[in-house]
Amino acid sequence: MDHFRNVFAVLMLAAMALSSCGSKDDAADTAVPDAELVFAAAGSVYIDGDADAVKNRGDVLADGKPVGQVRESGITDPRITYSVNGEDRFYIKYYTKGDIEDERYPSGATYAYYDMNGTVLGYSQERLLFRGDDMGYMMTFLNADGTMKDYFVEANDTSTHNWAENNAVIRTMDRKAVGSVDLSLVDNTTKECSVTMSLGEAAGQLSEMDRAAVYWKCMKDLYDRYCQKE
Q1: If we measure between CA atoms, which residue out of 67, 109, 62, 111 comes closest to residue 89?
Q2: What are the backbone dihedrals phi and psi of residue 14, each rounded to the nearest 5 degrees, phi first?
Q3: Among residues 17, 35, 60, 123, which is most buried (max CB within 10 A)?
Q4: Which whole-number Å values give the CA distances from 67 to 4, 35, 158, in the listed order?
Q5: Long-range contacts made by residues 77-81, C-beta under 8 angstroms, separation at least 24?
């Protein structure tokens, strides 16, 4: 009888231990009220992730408050989706129609933001805004009508233009620095990483979708920097 009691006790302890260990999915159910609005208005954003994961998932903190998750999915049609307490709010994917091009600026990759009904809410686009020795594609942000916003993000390292080399800076159109994007590889073995955005005066204009797009760009650059096979 004592033997069975001991086995039962061990099993109970194991069950209690498992129940106390929250998963990343559990963490997604702890978002603060009005989480999406908090995400959109915060002056600082922190999102973790795995640079080498096919289906990366990151918890979002806005001004230190949990406001949901972002997750990557799809191979032939990749996208990133933002959710609050398990409810999807919007997603971002490549946009190839070409109807928001501006002939003044050569462009690179374009991403469109969609609500869960498929309505376009805005865009981000790599554009060659300036010419010169340090010219490179900057990440710009556009309203749903294609109007470009007043801020862009560019790499600090103008030789590679990879944000993971030396982080990135948020600037006004006259190139005044107003904020920063810091990328960190936390563990070189597991490729655990984090992205921290300090938005400064740009916080009032860059939406939660713009912020998710910045994170996705960061994850791509972290993968290129640390995970690509030689």
Answers
A1: 67
A2: -65, -40
A3: 60
A4: 45, 5, 33
A5: 80/212, 80/213, 80/215, 80/216
> Which residue, chain included where needed, has tokens 């928001």?
100
Q: Does pTM top 0.70 for this prediction?
A: yes
Map out the domains of the chain as residue ranges.
24-226
Q: Rounded CA gap, 54 and 23, in Å? A: 18
92 vs 123: CA distance, rounded Å: 9
Q: CA torsion sign, 201 to 221 to 184 to 213?
A: positive
State which amino acid sits at residue 226: Y
Q: What are 58's strand-pairing partners?
A: 70
> What is the tens place of the pLDDT at every residue in 117-171?
999 999 999 999 987 766 789 999 999 999 999 999 999 987 788 999 999 999 9
Q: Where are the beta strands (DSSP E) in the chain?
A: 44-50, 57-62, 65-73, 79-84, 87-94, 107-115, 120-127, 138-143, 148-155, 168-172, 177-187, 192-198
CATH class of 24-226: alpha beta
Mean of pLDDT values over 189-200? 96
